[in-house]
Predict the structure.
Amino acid sequence: MKYHNIKQAKFLARPNRFVAKVQVDGREETVHVKNTGRCRELLLPGVKVILSEADNPNRKTRYDLIAVEKAGLGLVNIDSQAPNKIVQEWLAGQDFDFVKPEYKYGESRIDFYMERQGQKYLLEVKGCTLELNGVGYFPDAPTERGVKHIHELIKARQEGFCCGLAFVIQMPKVKEVQANIETHSAFGEALEEAKAAGVKIIFLGCTVGMDCLTIDKSRISADF
């Protein structure tokens, strides 16, 4: 996926989870942060960030903050909308007969429903931006919604669906994601239950450019 009208800036502060203060073109500007997660280990005063100019000229904020430079790692894409977009592109090349985003199942909307030769599939997508010692961790904040989605996948697997949970690793080098049990132990427990039930856990490592995010074929853990 591609971004347009890119600018480099310097991160100054994050007054709330929706906006940040940055220095761009020698002036301070308020920008929209495309991630409501904490991102505390990324959004540090003085770090380089990447902005994308919004298409809507009437918007209150002119730019979206889409990526952050992390020392020793490189650019980390923090756009929370990017994982689903890039997975939809990936699924288009996986020989499915039918792909439907935002599929209503149980009490949830699962990110993707697919069919192949009569087999029904469900795939939930999570973006990972938290890294420690070369390993990705999810979530970076408690996510009851994430736990609920995993339980829905377990139920669907028991009903005959082929189910998967895909972690889109929005940073270079990292090849796997583990549950961040210190932040949300219930997510870790649900993830282990899912594995035991036969839900496939898929890692999709990405190459991050200033104006793009691309799945790195050498860092795909499994086909689906």
Remarks:
- The mean pLDDT is 95.
- The longest helix spans residues 144-158.
- The chain has two domains: 6-77, 82-220.
